[in-house]
Automatic annotation (TrEMBL), chain B:
Protein name stated in the entry: AP-1 complex subunit gamma
Key word Phosphoprotein present: no
InterPro entries named in the record: Adaptor_Complx_Large_Subunit, AP1_complex_gsu, ARM-like, ARM-type_fold, Clathrin/coatomer_adapt-like_N, Clathrin_a/b/g-adaptin_app_Ig, Clathrin_app_Ig-like_sf, GAE_dom
Subcellular location: Cytoplasm, Perinuclear region; Cytoplasmic vesicle, Clathrin-coated vesicle membrane; Golgi apparatus; Membrane, Clathrin-coated pit
Sequence ranges assigned to domain GAE in this UniProt record: 705-820
SUPFAM superfamilies the record matches: ARM repeat (SSF48371), Clathrin adaptor appendage domain (SSF49348)
Primary residence: cytoplasm
Source species of the chain: Homo sapiens (Human)
Region described as Disordered: spans on this chain: 600-630
Phylogenetic placement of the source organism: Eukaryota, Metazoa, Chordata, Craniata, Vertebrata
Keyword list, A-Z: Coated pit, Cytoplasm, Cytoplasmic vesicle, Golgi apparatus, Membrane, Protein transport, Transport
Length: 192, 825
């Protein structure tokens, strides 16, 4: 099973942390320790590492991928296939890309809750739930729509704005410019 | 109270903080605002506040005051609230806080909600952090959802069921009926999670495993699904880099592995599909390799036919040549697992593996090193050792200790010649001398002693090695010991193997003195050096005065160990000069013993403290009686506190001299030499003056000390008696001598005695005196059993006797429970 999923940037700042086993009081330390281990790695070595002491020592492995400024680290135990998890990370990132349109670190920073929701559709209780990207995106879209119909996190003020937007007012021409109109009398030869 | 700021605003604000202190300040301010907002029980903004709280929690700030708010959100009717509420529950709570039980009712209601997404949220939360109480309460609901036709919910319910089973294994049977139809689904998500559920059930309970194998015909179903996946051609939904749902394939392969393990029928049923997957999968991308890797692991684990196994190992060999580091790492790991069972097949790839030793990647190097040690055998030892020594030269420090130990082990097992062995050890000591483990030094010394013809060569090489540099402690210790023992060979310049060097006695003493003085030498090393200098006093002829001076200087050393040694040696010079040459004679050939128990003491005493006081003089040189008597006088004199005179492990027959006659009857050897303790055990009480002299305790309490013997077995004319001895030096060892006698009128032949003890004990059975118990009690078979009882538990034993009597084979089992308390307390 997957013990933890961590995303942090090149300086060690956590962008997402999800633990599937109760690690009390040591969560921040685990993030720091993992960052130390992973940042020391060279670019062209393999993507597998023994886990640090806090996260379970050599029984657990850290499988990581480095994308631009972010490290995606999955801490797994021996029941998971290492190459399979590598593929899973790839699918996760591609899904994020689809949901956020060319995802970058800022997207992850400002929409942490959405990333959690996407992750919850892929991994549940430390086990892989769904790996089909389209399926996941469909579910997420449906849930977001449900949220939007309740006006979402933004709460009351946004409801007012959307209420105004939904009012069915008759079409009012925006630009009425009455200066400078030369009213042309139409040539009405056909008029008798 | 102004509206709480939005999450986005908060994040933006925090990012503008330039120092940690600024960030903390902002967060504290916001926390205060959130807390007052919570107090006001504001429903509209609660979800916003909790979202902010979760963000701050991720950054590492305390957020526990939001836990109750999460519950209020979960209880709300709005989907948005529920979503954030459940997320908060998963992140902030875990099963150790009692508060989480409040969620149980909410989850129960939500599991029956009309909106599938709400049900999904509830399942997700339960599956992530449900405690065993919650799982027990809600298992029924989960089971109901497992049977629904909604695939979105079904897959979540399957994983939730896995979590429930993990927390409360007894509930496994509850989910059994629901699993019947799981594999008939078309939806891959459901298939995937169903396979996970079945895997978990099979791994947890062997009964389930058997059930699935026989009744459910699981294997044919899985084979069918796998076949469809491979043959189905391009399916855009599940395609990952050209392969159709590799995740599902990998999961099914894993389940097949569990089903096929140790089961011939299942293994046979899956042979074909495995061969198909192995040959048809594309290997250009990582996905293909992931599937192949899983297939190989499955083939190796089940009872597959040999052709398939060879195919699997060849795939691994191909992996080794792949450019991708991950693939190579994975290949090395699997080869390590299979090298025990398919040794020959893995040997074929030896050269590739050895090349991996030169890789830049640390993880790969470590795997390659372990695998290389596993592949060493008598044929390839020379080539492999060359590569391994080169590796030892150039590898990172964290590997050196393991590599050195591995090389020593391999060299010991497969050394083609003594000279090669010594050369290899020298090479290791000089390249990685400071990383060699401490227990290697005594082993090496013992090895050198045993290769008698190589002494001159060895000491010469060691001398040359420390001439330049004496900072590597294990090297210096071994060298000092050898120079002390064989210094005469060194200065005499006789060496057949190599060009002899000209060394004078003074030069040798120079080097030993510099070791003594040097700041880099540890206290142990200094001890070695001082003793070596002392031994040279009998081997060298012209420098005895110099040695005397050196020894007397250290009589006032601050180091207590050195001081004691120096004072004793000084006394040797002054009062016991006539005994000096006998005491400092060459060491006898030591027997290598590798068992537990009292031998540990004997070995280390004999080697790490090469004190000149030995109870048995070594075989070289005749033993004039006067010297032997003098030795006895010394031991009787008690002037010098004797180092515990445990006997060295030489066989009694190899030591010569009258001294031995006196010691001969006494079983002073704690060593399990092949000779069993005969019925001379009761005679341990003579000669009295010798025992007085050994004023340190005798090794064994004898029968006179009063452990009663017992009759362990008496049936059909066969009687077995146990007599006991306890070791004083190791109080958890009991030595039992069994005597088997036969009162019938026919001999019992092919008599075999076997014994078993409970798990906390360790047992060692020595060879019996014979295998025939003569009739009419005319003789007995004796055998020695050693029992190690570190936890001082009551001794119990089960014995099994087999023998031939009156033409028929007899066998009997018995339990011995009447051990006297003194034998194990």
């Amino acid at each position: 099973m997957i013990k933890a999923i961590l995303i942090f940037n090149n300086h060690g700042k956590p962008r997402l942390s999800k633990f599937y086993q109760p690690y009390v009081n040591t969560q921040q330390q685990i993030i720091r320790e993992t960052f130390h281990l992973v940042s020391k790695r060279d670019e062209n070595v393999c993507n597998f590492l023994e886990g640090g002491l806090l996260i379970g020592g050599s029984d657990n492995k850290l499988i990581y991928r480095h994308y631009a400024t972010l490290y995606f680290v999955f801490c797994v135990d021996s029941s998971e296939s290492e190459l399979g998890i590598l593929d899973l990370i790839q699918v996760f990132v591609e899904t994020l890309d689809k949901c956020f349109e060319n995802v970058c670190e800022l997207d992850l920073i400002f929409h942490v809750d959405k990333v959690h929701n996407i992750l919850a559709e892929m991994v549940m209780g430390g086990m892989v739930l769904e790996t089909n990207m389209n399926e996941i995106v469909t579910q997420i879209d449906a849930q977001n729509k449900l949220e939007k119909s309740e006006a979402g996190l933004a709460g009351a003020p946004a409801r007012a704005v959307s209420a105004v937007k939904n009012m069915n007012l008759p079409e009012i021409p925006r630009n009425i410019n009455i200066g400078d109109i030369s009213i042309k009398v139409p040539n009405l030869p056909s008029f008798k | 109270m102004p509206a709480p700021i939005r999450l986005r605003e908060l994040i933006r604000t925090i990012r503008t903080a330039r120092t940690q202190a600024e960030e903390r300040e902002m967060i504290q301010k916001e926390c205060a605002a959130i807390r007052s907002s919570f107090r006001e029980e504001d429903n509209t903004y609660r979800c916003r506040n909790v979202a902010k709280l979760l963000y701050m929690h991720m950054l590492g700030y305390p957020a526990h005051f939001g836990q109750l708010e999460c519950f209020k959100l979960i209880a709300s009717q709005k989907f948005t609230d529920k979503r954030i509420g459940y997320l908060g529950a998963m992140l902030l709570l875990d099963e150790r806080q009692d508060v989480h039980l409040l969620m149980t009712n909410c989850i129960k209601n939500d599991l029956n909600h009309s909106t599938q997404f709400v049900q999904g949220l509830a399942l997700c939360t339960l599956g992530c952090m449900g405690s065993s109480e919650m799982c027990r309460d809600l298992a029924g609901e989960v089971e109901k959802l497992l049977k629904t036709s909604n695939s979105y919910l079904r897959k979540k319910a399957a994983l939730c069921a896995v979590h429930v089973i993990r927390k409360v294994p007894e509930l496994m049977e509850m989910f059994l009926p629901a699993t019947k139809n799981l594999l008939n689904e078309k939806n891959h998500g459901v298939l995937h999670t169903s396979v996970v559920l079945l895997t978990e059930m099979c791994e947890r309970s062997p009964d389930m495993l058997a059930h699935f194998r026989k009744n459910e015909k699981l294997v044919p179903q899985l084979v069918r699904i796998l076949k469809n996946l491979i043959m189905s051609g391009y399916s855009p939904e599940h395609d990952v880099s050209g392969i159709s749902d590799p995740f599902l394939q990998v999961r099914i392969l894993r389940l097949l592995r569990i089903l096929g393990r140790n089961d011939d029928d299942s293994s046979e049923a899956m042979n074909d599909i495995l061969a198909q997957v192995a040959t048809n999968t594309e290997t250009s991308k990582n996905v293909g390799n992931a599937i192949l890797y899983e297939t190989v692991l499955t083939i190796m684990d089940i009872k597959s036919e040999s052709g398939l196994r060879v195919l699997a190992i060849n795939i691994l060999g191909r992996f080794l040549l792949n450019n991708d580091k991950n693939i190579r790492y994975v290949a090395l790991t699997s080869l390590l697992k299979t090298v025990q069972t398919d040794h020959n097949a893995v040997q074929r790839h030896r050269s590739t593996i050895v090349d991996c030793l030169k890789d830049l990647d640390v993880s790969i190097k470590r795997r390659a090193m372990e695998l290389s040690f596993a592949l060493v055998n008598g044929n390839n030892i020379r080539g492999m050792m060359k590569e391994l020594l080169y590796f030892l030269d150039s590898c990172e420090p964290e590997f050196k200790a393991d590599c050195a130990s591995g090389i020593f082990l391999a060299a010991e097992k497969y050394a083609p010649s003594k000279r090669w062995h010594i050369d290899t050890i020298m090479r290791v000591l000089t390249t990685a001398g400071s990383y060699v483990r401490d227990d290697a030094v005594p082993n090496l010394i013992q090895l050198i002693t045993n290769s008698v013809e190589m002494h001159a060569y060895t000491v010469q090489r060691l001398y040359k090695a420390i001439l330049g540099d004496y900072s590597q402690q294990p090297l210096v210790q071994v060298a000092a010991w050898c120079i002390g023992e064989y210094g005469d060979l060194l200065v005499s310049g006789q060496c057949e193997e190599e060009e002899p060097i000209q060394v004078t006695e003074d030069e040798v003493l120079d080097i030993l003195e510099s070791v003594l003085i040097s700041n880099m030498s540890t206290s142990v090393t200094r001890g070695y050096a001082l003793t070596a200098i002392m031994k040279l006093s009998t081997r060298f002829t012209c420098t005895v005065n110099r040695i005397k001076k050196v020894v007397s200087i250290y009589g006032s050393s601050i180091d207590v160990e050195l001081q004691q040694r120096a004072v004793e040696y000084n006394a040797l010079f002054k009062k016991y000069d006539h005994m000096r040459s006998a005491l400092l004679e060459r060491m006898p050939v030591m027997e290598k013993v590798t068992t537990n128990g009292p031998t540990e003491i004997v070995q280390t005493n004999g080697e790490t403290e090469p004190a000149p006081l030995e109870t048995k003089p070594p075989p070289s040189g005749p033993q004039p009686t006067s010297q032997a008597n003098d030795l006895l006088d010394l031991l009787g004199g008690n002037d010098i506190t004797p180092v515990i005179p445990t006997a060295p492990t030489s066989k009694p027959s190899s030591a010569g001299g009258e001294l031995l006659d006196l010691l001969g009857d006494i079983n002073l050897t704690g060593a399990p030499a092949a000779a069993p303790a005969p019925a001379s055990v009761p005679q341990i009480s003579q000669p009295p003056f010798l025992l007085d002299g050994l004023s340190s305790q005798p090794l064994f309490n004898d029968i006179a000390a009063g452990i009663p013997s017992i009759t362990a077995y008496s049936k059909n004319g066969l009687k077995i008696e146990f007599t006991f001895e306890r070791s004083n030096t190791n109080p958890s060892v009991t030595v039992i001598t069994i005597q088997a006698s036969n009162s019938t009128e026919l001999d019992m032949t092919d008599f075999v005695f076997q014994a078993a003890v409970p798990k906390t004990f360790q047992l060692q059975l020595l060879s019996p005196s014979s295998s025939i118990v003569p009739a009419f009690n005319t003789g007995t078979i004796t055998q020695v059993i050693k029992v190690l009882n570190p936890q001082k538990q009551q001794l119990r034993m089960r014995i099994k006797l087999t023998y031939n009597h009156k033409g028929s084979a007899m066998q009997d089992l018995a339990e011995v429970n009447n051990f006297p308390p003194q034998s194990w307390q």
